[in-house]
Amino acid sequence: MPALRSPARLRWSPLLAYSIVIGAGFSILLLEITAGRLLAPVIGVSLETWTGIIGVVLAGYALGDALGGYLADRIPSPRLLAATLCLGGIGVMATVAVTDMMRGVWLGAPLFARVVLIAAIVLLAPAALLGAVLPIVTRLTLRTTAAAGGTAGGLSAAATASSVVGVALGGFYLLEHFGIRVIVLAAGAGLVALAVIALAASGEGRPRDTGAVDAMPSSGIITARPPAPLLLAALGGAAVMVVELAGARLAAPLFGSSLYTWATVIGVTLLGISLGNALGGRLADRQPTPRLLAHAFALSGTGTLAVLLMPYVYSRLWPRMTDAVLAALPPALSLPLLLGAMLLPAAVGFGTVSPILIRLSIRSIGTSGDVVGRIYAAQAVGSIAGTFAAGFLLISLLGARAVVLLVAQSAVLVGVLIAGSGTAAGGDVRPRIKVAAGAAFVFTVVVSAAGWVPSPCLRESNYYCIRVLDVAPGTRALALDSLIHSYVDLKDPTALRYDYEKGWAVLAADVAARRSGSGNAPPLRALFVGGGGYVFPRYLYHLYPASRIEVVEIDSAVTRVASEALGLSPALSVRTWNEDGRQFFLRRPQHTYDFVFTDVFRDAYSIPYHLTTREFARLVADALAPGGVYAVNIVDGRVGLFARSYVRTLQQVFRHVYLLPAGADWRQNVLTIFVVFAAQQPLDLRAITARRPPGVTAEIPLVPLTGEELAEYLAAGPSVVLTDDRAPVDNFLARVYAEAVRER
Fold first, then answer.
1. Phi and psi for 551 in degrees, rounded to 5?
2. Residue 200 near residue 81, CB atoms below 8 Å
3. pLDDT (tens digit per residue) in 12-41
4. How far apart are the first and last CA of the chain?
5. Does the chain have fewer CB atoms within 10 Å around its N or its C terminus?
6. Fold (CATH) for 11-206
7. pLDDT value at position 163?
8. Domain spans in the chain, listed from the N-terminal domain onward
9. What is the largest CA-CA distance in the chain?
């Protein structure tokens, strides 16, 4: 009787390797785009929080890269990969429960220390496990050192390309239709499924060489100084992150800060890195010399100049062409086209660096995992340094344009130095070229440090390009990136330009009149979430000088500009908290307020989602005094997805919610301002809007909807209750942006 044959096991192959890194890359990206939202209710959303989260995730990747490469050389088996994927998946799924455990802890600690500590507890372990995947897969797949560049570059390109899909699918679909917890749990489950597939693989196959050393150059930057590849990998990782952050800042005044813009910046950068990985790996196998690396850095620096050139082309040389592209194509096509020309050259160039370094550094299959892991770890460490340097220091100190110029010049200088490092580099570079490159770098540093690089910004902060415009004698406008936030009359603090300001003015007048009775101006207690040009805080202080007025403004540079150029006198008893609104309420306000006014636009089509949720509304409600009112300024379009959802959300917390759209034809407008009042007691909208306090000399163009009209509006289309778990505000407003662009 013939013996029963065991079922054929799945054998390790390049196809299986690519399938796993694509699936893992997609899951990793889902964790990255949801990590900030998962932690936002605990630590808020600000420069400190997102840089802290990015830093922890990248630190985890660096640790995982190094450890994964080390283990892969000692346990070159798919079982190691399966265990890593399984533990990583479990770790990702555990982030939901661990985050819940962090609510309310260490509220008295310094903000950044608290952010890093909580992010590390939640994210460091799963990030480290996921970071180990790529070096392990590379080690299992590599069969000869002669193909090291193509193998490492191809796998890295596939992982990065899957992240581009993750940005598109996650940003534009998953975040809108599913809660954060569902997405995180699904990503973790996907990693566990990949672990099962990896476990089914029988082995790594038989590599054609397991210890042979390739003939490499006898001297030069790679072989003479072993730390050099790690330093160069770190420089490449830092450069691409700085270019991405600075590029996003340069794009914001042109294209805004909507979901389309930031998703395009991230997607284009990842796509460029992916293309660079594939190209660099292929070229490295054909020309494994340091001279190729020198060319990669030099061309990357040259390509970085497109980040400076293209905004000038779009805004000054060919503005009509730019407008025509935006009008003719939907944002999902026009922005990748325009931002691709701006960011792709640099991203492709720096993307070639790591596979070239891997090909030049690998001496045998037996040590390939360790080499790949260390280079990827160094690249991640560089990315951390670039993120923190650009986010906290360089952009606000030197300006985005100067930072991009420094990156470009630095990359060219590194390329020249590599090319001239010895005969193994493919020929010496003439001394005069080295001197010229060094002198150009020094000149760029001096010009940047002196503030001589032209910029349209009065001040570049950690958040905005801040401009102050003289629009009329005695009147100035505050522009933050692409949006004019405030008009300020320096002589008359009661002058109100925007409709929502007039709506707030009649509300304040009504509450003050009901409280005073005698006609004297009573002291009011007001909190503003979002300061901008401080127009309404100045207004309230002028009319009710005994009032307690507090402002939560995330950007300290905006507050300084308001003091220096917009008439915010130190004599005004207005207390400012420069922090995120959610962070302010997490610490529990010391006082209660008659009003909480919220105006927190990032641009005309972008409102911070974490300040729109039911949980945030509860924090506001707890901070209101009896009889207090929550007044909010929002924006939406004809479809009204966000406006309806926001009203429904507030109705979960407040007994009475009122909607006042601006303009009699608001239902036909592409973009409409809405003023929202929410209170636990009923408000008489007719009496409120009939008041004429200073600054409101005529009937205000707000249309107060009756209870029946509001109910009809809410029933006219779909809506969701916005929660910390699911708040697709960016997705809703992205539709408004797309429609507005089409009708330009």
1. -130, 130
2. no
3. 888 999 999 999 988 888 888 888 899 999
4. 80
5. N
6. Growth Hormone; Chain: A; (1.20.1250)
7. 86
8. 11-206, 219-449, 483-742
9. 108
